[in-house]
Amino acid sequence: MLVWRITVFVLAALPLVWITAKTALNELGVDPVKELLDFLGHSALVLLLVTLCLSPLQRLRRWRGWLLVRRQLGLWAFSYASLHMLVFVALMIEWDAGRLWDELQRRPYVLIGSLALIGLLMLALTSNRYSMRRLGVHWKSLHRLVYPILILVLLHYLWVVRSDMAFWLLYALAGAVLLLFRLPLVQKRVLFGFRG
Q: Which of 113, 118, 161, 186 is the S-S candidate for 156 at Cβ 3.0 to 4.6 Å?
């Protein structure tokens, strides 16, 4: 299982290594800040969707390896989302609180993205054994926030892309399937059909 965990870690880190190399080599095109912002946001969304795939995979395949890397991938999704926000604050608006307020008023998707990041932060801070023991039965309820967070992220992404809907529709479909799978009736039917 150690090899599996290391493999997942390396795969999750590869996009960061790739974009860091592209940045260092000055190969981000005519608008490097936007390219960096988009890439990090896109990576965060993909990793969030992959993280949400792990519970259904475990239920279907009965292999505990899926759940062993769920926390790790969730933290990677949060890390990419945090870097996405850092690029926005540091490079796009250059730490200017006035510009941030203006962006929040003129572009509601900035507010929606910020709310999603705050939600991911709450999940990241409580994704350890200490928090699980401390929160007890409330831990699962708190971590179900990942579902509305996914909806916020998809809404944020929709508002950003607008003109090019192809990728958004693909991710929205994946997100909808993953959310539907959480419904008890759907789980029963899928699992029964899969095993039958």
A: 113
